[in-house]
Design a protein that fits this description.
The protein is of the alpha+beta class. The protein has helices spanning 11-25, 66-85, 94-108, 119-137; strands spanning 5-6, 9-10, 36-42, 48-51, 55-61. Strand 1 (5-6) and strand 2 form a beta hairpin.
Length: 138
């Protein structure tokens, strides 16, 4: 991994924390190996990610903030957790989003409505941004 910290977030430390919570959310009694995390920075690139069975690849654009880092990392790790959970469903279907939303609530106390598609992820990112901004002001 080229970058350990992006927008003040230690990627590996945050990934381990997210993975432990995701394993708990899917009801695994023992921790599975966390996928390898590959991170890139691109000045002229929007932040994107892709989850594979053995690793997660993420590219962060120049404007990536802590909310985007948290949302994207949890989003991609949730794909891996959904895969190993054995739950049926589409990659951004109800079961996947239930895993994502429940993990976000446990990690950051952010309560996002269940749904399908990318809606819960987009709402999560917005709410994390608001939460982090409120902490800066306080």
């Amino acid at each position: 991994m080229k970058h350990d910290t992006i927008a003040g977030e230690n990627i590996q430390k945050l990934a381990r924390k997210c993975w432990r919570v995701l394993i708990d959310v899917i009801g695994r009694d023992r921790e599975r190996e966390m996928p390898r995390i590959v991170v890139r920075r691109r000045a002229h690139h929007r932040s994107t990610g892709t989850a594979y069975h053995d690793h997660i690849a993420m590219t962060f654009g120049a404007n990536a903030d802590a909310a985007k880092v948290r949302e994207l990392l949890l989003h991609e790790l949730a794909h891996s957790a959904h895969y190993i959970s054995g739950r049926a469903g589409l990659p951004h279907g109800k079961e996947y989003n239930r895993i994502l939303v429940d993990a976000a609530a446990k990690l950051w106390g952010v309560h996002v409505g269940y749904g399908t598609g990318y809606g819960p992820s987009r709402t999560l990112e917005r709410m994390l941004r608001e939460q982090l901004a409120a902490k800066e002001v306080a």
